[in-house]
Design brief:
The complex is a heterotrimer of chains A (193), B (501) and C (261). Chain A has one domain: Four Helix Bundle (Hemerythrin (Met), subunit A). Chain A is built from five helices and no strands. Chain C is an all-alpha fold and 261 residues long. Helix content of chain C is 70%, strand content 2%. Chain C is built from eight helices and two strands, in the order ααααααααββ. In chain C, strand 1 and strand 2 form a beta hairpin. In chain C, helix 1 runs antiparallel to helix 2, helix 4 packs antiparallel against helix 5 and helix 6 packs across helix 8. Classes of the chains: A mainly alpha (193), B mainly alpha (501), C mainly alpha (261).
Chain lengths: 193, 501, 261
């Protein structure tokens, strides 16, 4: 049956990786622009002696928990890449699954924090920027989780190997960018407030 | 897809770069016609600055005016460039197809749906806010999501083009060996990917604030355009026109049968690309010295002129060393390439003049003049590109005369608009950004006459765009087969053109 | 040796960094601010400094990756695969309906942001479904070198899921749309609408059964038009809202009495 069919044409490696590197740099610029506006408006507001976030509104704990979760997911993503590199598919399934679950945990924690924070989006400029930046990152994580889900399907299909690991490497690059962006959110918004 | 599919099924499911290229160019032609059309209507109203005599108040005029600028860039110039790149870049680098053809198709459809939503948003009293703040919030929100989709579609296709240049090259071709148009797309595409997301961030910020119970600041209608305006003015407009340098650098040396100093030309493209980064020029967030008067902006404006002179130097070298008598068949692309270079040079010079504080051109119609010169350069360059690579795009022999007429009408029409707006800038006419009609400027005989010239210029450009669309349709219906290598080019796109029909 | 791509992006990275520092100092930054990313002092205009620095970071990433992949040169790829020539950058891809469906779903999703959350969710579901279909199509294209065999294998795997799921969605959408139409009509109008639509469907089916040679495309077109008409009717009816239902007596346990608008 299948053995009588011709072999599928080989796919050139690197194409997906190159496409992802452009998309990732675009994602970095998206957040770069928003962070620049955040820091600019915050600096102007504080210079005028006005309130930025209300006292005690931004708690470090949820941001810190998310940062820890994202950092952990970077490790599990590296584990997935390493497993594929060694053709260890069982570990690859596990690592991708755990990374996805950690992503879902971040979404869950952030959604809970949005409900809990009790600052309406139209409270002030800080609130608008807070929801836009963290909300956009949430979408970025959601896209990453969706990608990991599709990756898992493909890996289960057996097409990701040490020679053809573009899909996993590309997902990893995107995921690391997601973690990097969150570290800026943690630094500028949760710590710097 | 089985053999017995209908025409519509084949049309909507295609992933063929040549066909996608025609879609982009066709839709962009319509976008160009609409954009110039709304600009023409706004210009008609400017004939009498004392009162809104044609349309219902300054809000409508502002919507037309902003639709003209948004449309020119996002619905006309960028899709035209992507259309040409989709067909030409894979062939230039020796790739069998555009890399990620399905994503390229998705990019086009997302752009098309986004464009339709954007136009609908403008049509139902939306747009990108209005000084009088009386447009409908819901309609403004629709326009904003439409523009976001347009940006995503452009971004997705740009990634396909960039990936094709980087990872789709044939054996033995290093990145430094790619033809000039592909190189210019690499530089322009990189810079688009670094600036369009910033615009996307601005749009999202505006959208979220607008959809809040009451806008805090960013979503206030009078503030929307100013947050987005950096993408439609100096220096960002240079990025929209950057592929022009690649187009002319492919046309001129082959036409005059001379070598090009590629190092100098590629360097000029990189330099103009770098100084064209305009995401920093967000005047809305100015507090102290306006960002356009800061040393960095001023230096960048003058470096843009230097970059253009560098490019012209490289091309002049080819012209000097080239054949004394060029082949008459390549007259159309050559003439249009020269005209587009001239327009871009004028655009960079006007950009530098705008940066000179003592000339007091900030906020005047000279800003619009710079945009018009630069975008006109790209449009005329695109017509030159289509006359050069038209056989590859359409798979049929390209009729040169209609393209020459289109290019000349666009040059003359938009050139008139640019000159009139520049002189009006010196007369103190407001660029209309965020202004109500009565604040547009002092009405006077000179200003009124020049505004009439703007109307005439836009009318000529409108006829040019219409002529381009009609000749494009005739081109696609023509049965004359494509010529394999009409210009005697030596780059890869000419090596296998027989099968393109 | 640095590759051409690395040099290009590295040059952009360094130029953006120098430009950020220059802009920082000339827009009010103090001595150490622009050099320490604002850690020790002011950076001047935040937007200028921030966007240029981020550009530097993004192009730095591109330079790093271009260097790691040697610009993804075909020769470097061939060396990696230990073959004489690199394979084609893009394997032959046939027509696909997923790009246009995905784009339409995305448009619905974006419009839903403005119009109604239910529209957003509907668009999201289309996009997710498209993502799965796209991935599986992509997977199937790499199974063998025979496109027909690949399509068969994809269909064998996905059809048992697609057909019941699509049927379920189709029936659900129809039921929802028809119920909105009936609920928006007056009491008598609902009866009339139900009767007319029922008789219409019955008559159409009767007509079709007596014309076995009717072109397939015509039948598909009529059915598609009918489906679209019912959905549009449902949306319009949902926008108008249901007719009023008054309660006899005033407590929640009492009987509902319907009235016309």
């Amino acid at each position: 049956m299948i053995t009588t069919a011709p072999v599928a044409p080989a796919n050139r490696p690197r194409t997906l990786m190159v496409g992802t590197m452009f998309a990732t740099s675009a994602a970095l610029m998206f957040f770069g622009g928003l962070f620049s506006i955040y820091l600019s408006v915050r600096s102007d507001t504080l210079a005028w002696g006005a309130e930025w976030f209300p006292e005690g509104a931004i708690s470090l704990l949820p941001g810190g928990m998310n940062m820890a979760t994202m950092a952990l997911s970077a490790v599990t993503m590296a584990w997935a890449v390493y497993s594929i590199l060694n053709n260890d598919r069982v570990h690859a399934y596990l690592a991708i699954l755990v990374t996805g679950i950690l992503g879902v945990a971040v979404i869950n924690q952030t959604a809970f924090y949005f409900m809990d924070i009790a600052i309406p989006v139209d409270y002030n400029e800080a609130a608008v920027l807070f929801y836009v930046i963290i909300g956009a990152h949430l979408v970025m994580v959601g896209l990453g989780v969706f990608w990991l889900g599709l990756l898992l399907l493909r890996t289960l299909g057996g097409q990701d190997t040490a020679q053809h690991r573009d899909l996993v490497s590309s997902a990893a690059l995107y995921w690391y960018a997601t973690v990097a962006v969150y570290s800026f959110i943690w630094l500028f918004i949760y710590i710097g407030k | 897809m089985s053999e017995n599919t209908t025409v519509i099924e084949r049309a909507v499911t295609t992933t063929d770069p040549a066909l996608l290229s025609r879609y982009w160019i066709g839709a962009a032609g319509l976008g160009l016609f609409l954009s110039i059309g709304v600009g023409f209507l706004a210009a008609l109203e400017r004939l009498d600055l004392s009162t809104a005599s044609i349309f219902d108040g300054a809000d409508v005029i502002f919507q037309l005016w902003s639709a003209h600028r948004v449309g020119l860039v996002l619905l006309a110039v960028l899709p035209l460039i992507l259309g040409l790149a989709t067909a030409v870049v894979p062939r230039q680098v020796g790739a069998s197809s555009l890399v990620f053809p399905r994503m390229a198709a998705a990019g086009f459809w997302v752009w098309l749906f986004g464009a339709a939503i954007t136009v609908t948003g403008f049509a139902v009293d939306g747009g990108v806010g209005a000084p009088g703040a009386t447009s409908q919030t819901q309609a403004v929100a629709i326009t904003l999501v439409g523009i976001m989709m347009v940006l995503l579609g452009i971004g997705a296709t740009t990634i396909c083009v960039l990936t094709t240049v980087v990872a789709g090259r044939s054996s033995g071709m290093s990145l430094g060996d790619v033809p000039a148009f592909s190189w210019s797309m690499l530089v322009a595409g990189t810079m688009w990917m670094l600036t369009l997301p910033v615009l996307m961030g601005n749009l999202l910020l505006v959208y979220v604030d607008l959809r809040g119970r009451s806008a805090v600041r960013f979503g206030a209608e009078e503030a929307i355009w100013e947050q987005l305006s950096w993408a439609f003015t100096n220096p960002q407009v240079y990025l929209w026109a950057l592929p022009l340098l690649g187009i002319v650098a492919d046309i001129i040396p082959v036409s005059v049968k001379a070598k090009l100093n590629t190092n100098r030309m590629f360097g000029a493209i990189c330099l103009l690309g770098f100084v064209g980064f305009g995401a920093y020029a967000q005047t809305y967030f100015d507090l102290g010295t306006p960002v356009r008067q800061e040393a960095f902006s001023v230096v960048a404006a003058f470096v843009a002129v230097l970059a253009m002179l560098m490019a012209l130097g490289a091309l002049a070298g080819s012209l000097r060393n080239g054949a004394k008598e060029t082949d008459a068949s390549s007259a159309t692309p050559l003439v249009l390439a020269m005209l587009s270079l001239l327009l871009l040079l004028v655009g960079t010079v006007v950009g530098a003049l705008n940066a000179v504080e003592s000339l007091d051109l900030a906020g005047t119609s000279a800003i619009g003049a710079q945009m018009i010169f630069t975008l006109a350069a790209m449009l005329v360059g695109m017509v030159a590109g289509l006359s050069w690579w038209g056989d590859l795009v359409a798979g049929r022999a390209t009729p040169q005369r209609p393209l020459l007429i289109t290019g000349l009408l666009l040059t003359l029409g938009l050139g008139l608009v640019g000159v009139a707006d520049l002189i009006n800038g010196f007369n103190g006419l407001n660029d209309f950004t965020g202004a109500v009609l009565s604040e547009a400027g002092n009405s006077g005989s000179a200003v009124d006459t020049l505004n009439l010239i703007v109307v005439i210029g836009l009318g000529m450009a409108l006829v040019g765009a219409l002529n381009g669309m009609i000749s494009g349709c005739q081109h696609l219906r023509s049965s004359e087969p494509a010529v394999a290598n009409p210009w005697g080019g030596t780059t890869l796109e000419w090596s296998d053109n027989e099968g393109s029909a | 040796m640095l590759t051409k791509g690395t040099k290009f992006w590295l040059a952009l990275c360094l130029a953006a960094m120098v430009a950020a520092a220059f802009a920082g100092y000339t827009t009010g930054g103090d001595e150490t601010g622009p050099l320490t990313l604002g850690w020790k002092g002011a950076v001047g205009n935040h937007i200028v400094y921030g966007t240029l620095m981020m550009m530097s970071a993004a192009t730095g990433l591109l330079a790093m990756l271009a260097s790691a992949f040697r610009d993804a040169d075909a020769d470097a790829v061939a060396q990696l695969l230990e073959t004489e020539d690199a394979p084609d950058a893009q394997i032959k891809t046939g027509p696909s309906v997923w790009p246009v469906i995905g784009a339409a779903g995305f448009a619905v999703m974006m419009l839903g942001l403005v119009l109604h959350p239910a529209v957003f969710v509907a668009g999201l579901l289309i996009v997710v479904a498209m993502g799965i279909e796209w991935t599986m199509t992509n997977w199937s294209e790499k199974l063998t070198g025979d496109p027909v065999r690949n399509r068969e294998m994809r269909e064998n795997l996905l059809r048992p899921i697609e057909i019941p799921l699509l049927s379920l969605v189709g029936i659900g959408v129809l039921v929802l749309a028809v119920s909105r139409i009936l609920l928006a009509s007056s009491v008598n109008g609902a009866v009339i609408v139900a009767t007319v639509v029922g008789v219409g469907i019955f008559a159409l089916a009767f007509f079709v059964s007596t014309r076995p040679t009717l072109p397939r495309a015509l039948l598909q077109g009529v059915l598609a038009l009918g489906f679209v008409a019912i959905i549009v009717g449902g949306i319009v009816a949902a926008a108008n809202g249901e007719r009023e239902f008054h309660q006899k007596g005033g407590t929640s346990n009492d009987t509902l009495v319907e009235t016309d608008h």
